[in-house]
Amino acid sequence: MSSKFTCLRTLRLAARHAPRRTFATTSARRSPSDDHVRIVEVGPRDGLQNEKQSIPVATKLELVRRLAETGLKTIEAGSFVSPKWVPQMASSDEILSQILKSPPASSSPITYQFLVPNEKGLDSFLSVYNNHTTSSTSSTTTPKIELSIFTAATESFTRKNTNCSIAESLDRFKPIMTRAKDASIPVRAYISVALGCPYEGPNVDPHQTASLAVSLLEMGADEISVADTTGMGTAPKTAELLKTLFAAGIEKKDLALHFHDTYGMALVNTVVALEHGIRTFDSAVGGLGGCPFSPGATGNVATEDLVHLVSSLGAKTDVDMEKLSEVGEWISGQLGRANESRAGKATLAGLRRGSKEKAKL
Length: 361
Ligand SMILES: CC(C)(COP(=O)([O-])OP(=O)([O-])OC[C@H]1O[C@@H](n2cnc3c(N)ncnc32)[C@H](O)[C@@H]1OP(=O)([O-])[O-])[C@@H](O)C(=O)NCCC(=O)NCCSC(=O)C[C@@](C)(O)CC(=O)[O-]
Description:
Blueprint: H1 2-17, E1 38-41, H2 43-47, H3 57-68, E2 74-79, H4 92-101, E3 111-115, H5 119-132, E4 144-152, H6 155-162, H7 166-182, E5 187-192, H8 206-219, E6 223-228, H9 235-247, E7 255-259, H10 266-275, E8 280-283, H11 303-312, H12 321-335, H13 342-360
Parallel strand pairs: 1-2, 1-8, 2-3, 3-4, 4-5, 5-6, 6-7, 7-8
The chain binds 3-hydroxy-3-methylglutaryl-coenzyme A.
Family: Belongs to the HMG-CoA lyase family.
GO molecular function: hydroxymethylglutaryl-CoA lyase activity; metal ion binding
Pathway: Metabolic intermediate metabolism; (S)-3-hydroxy-3-methylglutaryl-CoA degradation; acetoacetate from (S)-3-hydroxy-3-methylglutaryl-CoA: step 1/1
């Protein structure tokens, strides 16, 4: 154990002082062009995992189907974690199976992502995945599937979330990475609580996040999603974190940012990240979400608000704002919760006004 911590400390020091480095990965990285922002819609997973009421699989699948029609190209659809820890995600095998069996209709190919915390989760995932991706299946109709692993920038959160230390979480990932690469499945890696921890407070050392990102990229991760799980992030902290990541040799195209909007700072932090050249962001339709292991943290930044922000800056997401806003309103109604997207609600109000005026003519 102590040697792993020593190793992390060494990496951390290296991240502080090292010249820029490059990482070899096996799959093509996404690098959206400068005026294009890639959105990873996490509503069906991060958005639903914390809901206390049981949500029918049909509703989850309907959410995925409706999101697929909006122009979103990456949707996180479930997670193969322990049902004792996160009961809401227990149906992820069925979700994956249905997506593979009858992919939701969409105008362009969609990538679906699933979380796996350990080899047991990977086994469950692969038993469904391999069953559907036999040689008889046409690769043009099979949707793209990716895996996500997750760790955190503080020991306390890692322990609460995954019942292990940070070093142990990295050890768990090594066989997952090897087996995923053998199956040609890209792997995304999350680093939670990078801008504030519910157990250790708002000041999380950005060098710790940089060290972890370096380890995960060296292990073969195709993308690092750096998460502000608690929403404690601010504009200066976001800028400092990004500068630290870049100084450690991590490139813009390696990174996604994942903001929760607990303090209403998510869009401000997004602008800071855009100014630093980041072009991939995670969000959840209707502002759904919250992590069961981050008490008090509220939803992800709403996808509708993110799309509106990006378009207000003259950049593109290829997402149909009206369709997306309808999805946010629909899923909020299904869950009996308020729609948290201001831009979504404003868009719908505008649509209703427009149709009333048309009806008068
Ligand atoms: C990581 C473990 C599994 C370790 O959990 P553990 O209890 O240490 O594992 P274990 O190996 O001792 O196993 C305990 C029981 O769980 C079972 N088990 C063990 N693994 C699995 C599995 N994969 N699938 C199904 N079952 C599993 C295992 O079979 C056993 O069952 P029992 O013998 O007691 O009947 C557990 O801590 C866990 O599932 N945690 C869930 C963490 C989670 O889902 N958190 C939310 C997602 S992360 C997040 O939201 C943050 C993110 C990504 O959005 C970014 C951000 O905003 O920060």
